[in-house]
Amino acid sequence: MLEKRLGEVELEIYHIVCRLEEASVQEVVDEISRERQTAYTSVMTLMKNLSEKGYLGYKKIGKKFIYFPAVNPESLKISLLEKTLDKVFGGSVLDLVQSLVNSEKIGREELAEIRQILNDLEEE
């Protein structure tokens, strides 16, 4: 499990870099700027922090730093979910699933997919 915490904006930056596969600070600033204003230096600092925490790697091309995911996105999802499961739901998967189902954010199609996943697991 990954131990170093990620802030909300750090996680957003990580996802942008994952989606782009690799990115300069300016490319991440451009992506964030589609939603809201952001300072280049703030993004640069956060990307450096993500690198120091081990979530992003980088290579230097000339004077430019190009960042790339150093942690598999699925590994990060599992790690964050495990932390949430422990901190918010006291380790109860049932409580987590009930909260998700009761949140009304799950549509009929997703429920059908979840049922299929559970059926497949039971058949194994």
Task: Give a summary of the structure in a few sentences.
The protein is mainly alpha-helical and 124 residues long. 64% of the residues lie in helices and 10% in strands. The chain contains six helices and two strands.
Overall description:
With 124 residues, the protein is mainly alpha-helical. Helix content is 64%, strand content 10%. The protein has six helices and two strands; from the N terminus they run αααββααα. It has a two-stranded antiparallel sheet with strand order 1-2. α1 packs across α3 and α2 crosses α3. The radius of gyration is 18 Å and the shape is elongated. The two termini are 27 Å apart.
Total strand count, please? Answer: 2
Strand content: 5-15%
Instruction: Based on Cα principal axes, name the global outline.
Output: elongated
| Strand arrangement in the largest pleated sheet | 1-2
State the order of secondary-structure elements, H for helix, E for strand. HHHEEHHH
Features:
124 residues; mainly alpha; two-stranded antiparallel ribbon; 6 helices; 2 strands; elongated
List the helices and strands and how they pair.
Blueprint: H1 8-20, H2 25-33, H3 40-53, E1 56-61, E2 64-69, H4 73-89, H5 93-102, H6 108-123
Antiparallel strand pairs: 1-2
Helix pairs in contact: 1-3, 2-3
